[in-house]
UniProtKB/TrEMBL annotation:
Gene3D superfamilies xrefs: CBS-domain, Hotdog Thioesterase, HprK N-terminal domain-like, Winged helix-like DNA-binding domain superfamily/Winged helix DNA-binding domain
Xref: PANTHER family: CBS DOMAIN-CONTAINING PROTEIN, CBS DOMAIN-CONTAINING PROTEIN CBSX3, MITOCHONDRIAL
Domain of life of the organism encoding this protein: Bacteria
SMART domains per UniProt: CBS
Keyword Magnesium: no
SUPFAM superfamilies: CBS-domain pair, HprK N-terminal domain-like, Thioesterase/thiol ester dehydrase-isomerase, Winged helix' DNA-binding domain
Protein name: Predicted transcriptional regulator containing CBS domains
Chain ranges of the CBS domain: 195-253, 255-315
């Protein structure tokens, strides 16, 4: 039986791109409550085929594929620049291909215009008309509006005509920053990237322990999801649960209820941390409580291997902090990272902030543990003692030493020093994550 929530999601997917979506309209058309409609629209927004914008409303957009995630839609551009849509609302779902700055002579602009472009320009009406006729959307900066003729062209060609109060340089900077963030997201692997929706071997609560053993023998998987007749996950059954159970007993008496789950939008890094912390080999993947797949430890290891081979195309805050720190040889079995406190790493008072300090400590511990064992780590606990502040432009050393390690856990001590003396110490407990 399909739930009302799923019916609403299917209805939204069936709408044409650019269609306006409202809670009241969906509630009226599908005969559901406004609360149910609202929750379904929010789920559609999280899945990426709906976008909600101030002063515009909710619009059906094209769901981005992983390979094109670095592309923004014009609807997202409106949100980024806090703009107003003057015309061409039907084209808000389209993707931005490239930026063109209208700061050149009019006769030189045409060679840079092509469909999918976004012309960023002030109150130059001739450039605005030329851009729309060439298939490019227009973003008018400086708070200027457009003439009725330009608005008619935007509506005719279904190309967004946007106005914002920022100057051209600030507007281009904001959009480039958003594109840069999208590039970082492209490198992040999610559960949906490694687990495909598939028909799964499952059991129901009324099945017996004997049925469980038959399924294990047929599939080779020892942990089996348990679902109700509507396909919703209600538990997990494993050999430990039925070790002393009679073969004719229903598995509902022995299954683990409310198992640890992930969604398709959970990151692989988060899932691997949860697997290591909980000590489990498999987690069900659910969407709206419906089972859509399973994530195994082998899937996670394979995904981490893929991530390690990907080229780094954009820098995160963590990358910016540690990029200028270099490993210095130390003959006493320790790892030494040396670098400088840059202005971006400081507080408003000009001293090293706790966030960058924690990042440096974790990086030193990671490098140290990689020399002991070729595996990644997940920090479970960190105790930090800050002895005194360190000013900007100071050269600091992070000395890491493994105190103890085993098959699953490791303990690392990190001492941070400047030219004077140690100013911070930390003790980390971490879990290994095999690649």
């Amino acid at each position: 039986m399909v739930t009302k929530h799923q019916q609403i999601l299917d209805y939204i997917r069936s709408l044409p791109l650019g269609a306006q979506i409202s809670v009241r309209k969906i509630a009226r058309v599908l005969h559901v409550s406004e609360g149910t409609a609202y929750r379904a629209i929010k789920d559609a927004e999280r899945e990426g085929f709906v976008s909600t914008l101030d002063r515009i409303g909710t619009v059906r957009v094209e769901r981005k594929e992983k390979a094109q995630i670095e592309r923004l839609t014009f609807a997202e551009v409106v949100r980024i620049v806090e703009g107003t849509v003057l015309g061409g609302r039907e084209g808000l779902h389209k993707s931005l291909g490239r930026l063109v700055i209208g700061a050149m002579k009019t006769e030189s602009i045409s060679r840079y215009l092509n469909p999918g472009s976004l012309m960023i320009v002030g109150n130059r009406e001739q450039v605005q008309r030329m851009s729309l006729k060439s298939g490019a959307a227009v973003l008018i900066t400086g708070g200027f509006t457009a003439s009725p003729m330009v608005e008619r062209l935007a509506n005719e060609y279904q190309l967004p005509l946007i106005s914002c109060s920022y100057d051209t340089f600030t507007t281009a900077t904001l959009i480039n920053r958003a594109l840069y963030d999208q590039m970082i997201k492209k490198d992040i692997l999610y559960v949906e990237d490694v687990v495909q929706e598939q028909s799964l071997s499952t059991l129901t609560p009324v099945d017996t322990v004997r049925d469980y053993y038959h399924l294990v023998e047929a599939t080779g998987h020892s942990r089996v999801p348990v679902v109700d007749r509507n396909g919703r996950l209600v538990g997990i059954i494993s050999p430990r649960d039925v070790a002393e159970a009679e073969s004719s007993a229903p598995i509902a008496r022995f299954m683990t209820r409310h198992p640890v789950t992930v969604t398709p939008k959970t990151t692989i890094a988060s899932a691997s941390h949860r697997m290591a912390f909980e000590g489990i080999e498999m987690m069900p993947v659910v969407r709206d409580r419906n089972l859509v797949g399973v994530l195994t430890r082998q899937d996670v290891i394979r995904a981490l291997q893929i991530m390690s081979r990907q080229p780094q195309v954009a820098e995160t805050v963590e990358d910016l902090v540690v990029r200028d720190f270099t490993s210095v040889e130390s003959g006493d079995g320790q790892v030494l990272l040396r670098g400088q406190v840059t202005p971006q790493m400081t507080t408003s008072g000009g001293t090293l902030a706790s966030g960058p300090l924690t990042t440096i400590i974790q990086e030193a511990a990671r490098v140290c543990l990689r020399r002991v064992r070729h595996a990644d780590m997940v920090v479970e606990n960190m105790t930090l003692y800050m002895l005194r502040p360190v000013p900007v432009d100071s050269t600091i050393d992070a000395r890491a030493k493994v105190l103890d390690y085993g098959r699953r856990y490791a303990k690392v001590e990190v001492v941070i020093e400047d030219e004077a003396d140690a100013f911070a110490k930390a003790l980390l407990t971490a879990q290994w994550i095999e690649r």
